[in-house]
Amino acid sequence: KATVSVLYCAAMPSQKKMAHLISWNVAGWETAVKTLQAECGGVEAWLKQHQADILCIQETKTVRGTLEGPALRTATKIEGWESFWATNEGKAAQRKGLNGVATYAKKGLVQGCDTKPLGVPDLDEEGRCIATFHGDIVIYNVYVPNDMGQGRLAFKIRFLDALKEAMTTQRARGLQVILCGDFNISPNPEDLHWTRRVLPLSTIESHTKLKHTWHLIHESCKSATLSDNRTVLRNVVTGRPVTLTNNPGTSGGAHPDYTVRNLMEYYSKLTETDVSRDEWRRLSDAFGTQRHAPELIAWFASLVTDGFTDTFKAGNVGFKQRFTCWDQSKNKRYENLGSRIDFIMVSRGVLWRHLYAPSHPEDESESQALVDATAKHLFKPAPPTGGGIPPAPSSAFAHQYERLPTVTGIIYTPPHLSDHVAVSVCVEVDCGLNLNVDKKTREGQPQNAQRSILSMFGKRKASDTGNKPSKIRETIDLS
What pLDDT does 475 receive? Predict the structure, then answer.
């Protein structure tokens, strides 16, 4: 049975403030820090520009030893801020340095942290979850495992179940919960671009045009070959080889991929069946589903049933094709062919709002979503000749700070920083809090370890001053 760590607070402070919380998968914090330093004056300047109070980052790709290195030293010790780190030190299944999550919070807004909040060693040691305590709120910052093509579905389900158990324990103690991060789940069909949804076989077999040649596509897939990492099939009418643009990603190519984008290519190249793009869109909107295991969809749905609110969705009703992650290797952000997998969920009782109201709430269109995702088309894709994504011009880089986007709750960070953009919300939290000095909190601040050791030599005993030590909040384990 998991041992869940709980920060015990006998009395809650009465001071409150609305804090701006940002969550962002940075795809490597060291690289992001260097870019932010070069383009906007550093992490501290970036936080000020965004009026941030709490920053939760995922996929930091850091280890404890690098936090004091020259590249990250200034970014881990920002004046007026505390930072807490959960890293992968190579003690679990994945190699050292992968994953990693960290939470920054302004001083006075945080009491402590737990870098192993799930209470299950092989889950905690991958550095995928950190809990920070903020008076009557606990924030879980997570980087959920990716199960696509890695055979880690069972691990992912165990991780999610342990996470839910930990949150349930905190709520049972009277604390509110905020869950944020990269979930690696698109819980609803609208959280995927329509071409990336999956059509049920029953839809294909009942469609007037599609059903007649479906069995021929099956036969063609059985003889699939690879050439330059591209899938090659044979046109069922002419017998000529056809190279697919979108790799199905199936084992040996023996079974067709049911995503709409691949089905469109199968039918146009293999059978020459005349099905319009509008018809494919209609089928996707009517019958398309996500590519996730049912257990993952059910897990997310259970959060909503338990009283959690998806803050972006609740604040942007009716907005279409708003995503947080794109395939950078194929320049998909510039077509807005993405998915929404980054979330901030709040339990019932957390007071929240977005930093800004949408500037033009009447514009819910897909075309406007593309304009926002590309900073009015100022973000440029990587050239086909190589060289990577070009840096954004200053006018485009500044787009993330503006109120201009029609949607709220997404910060359109530039694509050369990460394949994800940031998400945000304002939440009411306690302020005037003192940071604990308990073991779990110290474990989450390895960048302060040297300072803590040195401070022990200069600390006077309570008897030297005639004062009793002040009582601090305790950390206890509940089974």
Answer: 39
Q: C-alpha angle 81/97/63, rounded to 5°?
A: 35
What are the structure tokens assigned to 46, written together?
Answer: 């970036």
Tokens of 187: 């819980």
Kindly state the tokens that stand for 100.
């990693």
Q: C-alpha angle with apex 11: 8 to 13, nearest 5 degrees?
A: 115
Helix (H) or strand (E) holding 22: strand 16-25
Pairing of β 16-25 and β 54-58: parallel
**What are the φ and ψ backbone dihedral angles of 326, each rounded to 5 degrees?**
-135, 160
Percent of the chain with pLDDT over 70: 85
171: enclosing H helix or E strand: helix 153-172
The per-residue pLDDT for range 385-430, each reduced to its tens digit, is 888 898 888 888 777 876 544 568 999 999 999 999 999 999 999 9
pLDDT, one tens digit per residue, over 24-66 is 999 999 999 999 999 889 999 999 999 999 999 999 999 999 9
pTM of the entire structure?
0.88
Question: What values do phi and psi take at 446, rounded to 5?
Answer: -60, -25
Residue 84 contacts residue 130 (beta carbons within 8 Å): yes
| Cα(243)–Cα(255) distance, integer angstroms | 16
- Beta carbons of 470 and 176 less than 8 angstroms apart: no
Burial pattern 227-249, b for ≥16 Cβ within 10 A else e, equals eeeebebbebeeeeebebebebe
Distance CA 292, CA 305 (A): 19
Q: What is the dihedral of CA 476, 16, 19, 168, to 10 degrees?
A: 40
| Six-digit token string for 400 | 């993330």
Which amino acid is it at 385? T
With contact defined as beta carbons under 8 Å apart, do 411 and 50 qualify? Answer: yes
Judge contact between 181 and 142, C-beta under 8 A.
yes
Q: Which of left, alpha, beta for 175 (phi over 0: left; psi -120 to 50: alpha)?
A: beta
Instruction: Give alpha helix (H) positions in 9-66.
Output: 29-40, 43-49
| Block residue for tokens 């789940």 | 185
User: Beta strands of 59-124 (E only): which ranges?
Assistant: 81-86, 101-106, 112-114
Cα 86 from Cα 141, distance rounded (Å): 10
Q: Distance between CA atoms of 182 and 425, rounded to whole angstroms? A: 15
CA distance 36 to 62: 17
Other CB atoms within 10 A of residue 278 CB = 8
Q: How far is CA 216 from CA 30, 76, 208, 209, 234, in A?
A: 50, 58, 15, 13, 10
Q: How many CB atoms lie within 10 A of CB 339?
A: 20
Report which residue type is found at 437: V
